[in-house]
Amino acid sequence: MATRIFLRGAITKRTVLFPPFLRSSISSSRNGSTLVVAEHENGTIKSASLSALLAAASLPDKDSSVSLLLAGSGPSLHEAASHAASSHPSISQVLVADSEAFKNPLAEPWAKLVHLVQQRGDYSHIIAASSSFGKNVMPRLAALLDVSPVTDVTGISDSHTFVRPIYAGNALSTVRYTGASPCILTIRSTSFPVSQKSVDSKSDKASISQVDLSTFNEDLDKSRFVSQTSRDDEGPDLGSARVVVTGGRALKSAEKFKLIEDLAKKLGAAVGATRAAVDAGFVANDLQIGQTGKIVAPELYLAFGVSGAIQHLAGMRDSKVIVAVNNDADAPIFQVADYGLVGDLFEVIPELLKKLPEKK
Ligand SMILES: Cc1cc2nc3c(=O)[nH]c(=O)nc-3n(C[C@H](O)[C@H](O)[C@H](O)COP(=O)(O)OP(=O)(O)OC[C@H]3O[C@@H](n4cnc5c(N)ncnc54)[C@H](O)[C@@H]3O)c2cc1C
């Protein structure tokens, strides 16, 4: 595998070779077909999975076909299949696995399902979003198939050459996959943005087929679903929100973090948090943005009491406009901010809340 690293400012090149056993059978020509492993919710395909679909469609082979795999149980699965079938011209078929085994997002049965579908379909590429779900399922699938996944892809140069960030997003590396087939990818949805124009443009529907699960052997011993919780205040999804309001350790408590939530509500924004705020118990960890949290690239990112540690920047530096409020003029967040205000967030946010109109 050859790796090129682009550092911001200077450009550095580095070559890394895959061990010989991985430089094996696959040729660089693309033979065929891609499977997109998709997530769905309330009868529609999740935005991150639509991004995975756009990534699949951008693989350079005009003769290839794209299949989309959905699993779950109940009517919403079939609604989602119908949504998927008309969501993009590149989809040739939607595969539906309807079983109680996929009712909950457990990685083990999902990985086994994709493995089964791969054995029958012999896809050249298998793609999923780099969501918590994708990050959970795809490495297990790669282990079952004995291949090495290429994770967090942000760009596709050709069918086996991909761009991905390294060193917490400070460098981009171009990697060439020379391992065995299939090529397994997780993609960063922020790099394959979904617009109304890029989806819902298909007039005829792709075919929908049921996956034959008669040979599927559900192994219930290894993991068991316990519970799932979600926040009551349904704001926009953090991964795809146009505006994100983030609070850091400076908020001091869960009660005071409500200021961030109130502001987000007024702006119709998603709430984000630093790891320090999550570790201090102000908010749940699914709001964490950064290297070990979610990656976001909204049109507007508002950071309150966030120092701008490199691990946090890794999750938000691609935001289009960054606004930072911090009482320390030397805080590193100001180095990436488009607009900065040196001030006390406990004064600034109440003032903003007073001046902003109510969201209709
Ligand atoms: C392996 C690893 C992975 C990590 N992953 C992540 C990650 O995914 N995401 C992440 O966020 N972090 C991550 N971290 C932690 C990261 O290094 C920082 O510790 C963290 O981001 C700091 O959070 P913070 O900015 O809220 O807190 P601090 O660094 O404590 O900064 C608080 C800021 O608030 C300002 N402030 C204080 N009071 C006020 C006030 N009244 N008004 C305005 N400003 C005020 C201060 O000047 C300061 O700049 C990771 C660390 C490691 C080692």
From TrEMBL:
UniProt entry tagged with the keyword Cell inner membrane: no
Compartment(s) where it occurs, according to its Swiss-Prot or TrEMBL record: Mitochondrion matrix
GO cellular component, one term: mitochondrial matrix
Chief place of localization: mitochondrion
GO biological process, one term: fatty acid beta-oxidation using acyl-CoA dehydrogenase
Binding site residues for FAD: 249, 274-275, 288-292, 305-312, 326
Pfam families, A to Z: ETF (PF01012), ETF_alpha (PF00766)
Superkingdom in the source lineage: Eukaryota
SUPFAM superfamilies with a match to the protein in the record: Adenine nucleotide alpha hydrolases-like, DHS-like NAD/FAD-binding domain
Biological role stated in the UniProt entry: The electron transfer flavoprotein serves as a specific electron acceptor for several dehydrogenases, including five acyl-CoA dehydrogenases, glutaryl-CoA and sarcosine dehydrogenase. It transfers the electrons to the main mitochondrial respiratory chain via ETF-ubiquinone oxidoreductase (ETF dehydrogenase).
Subunit record text: Heterodimer of an alpha and a beta subunit.
Name of this protein: Electron transfer flavoprotein subunit alpha
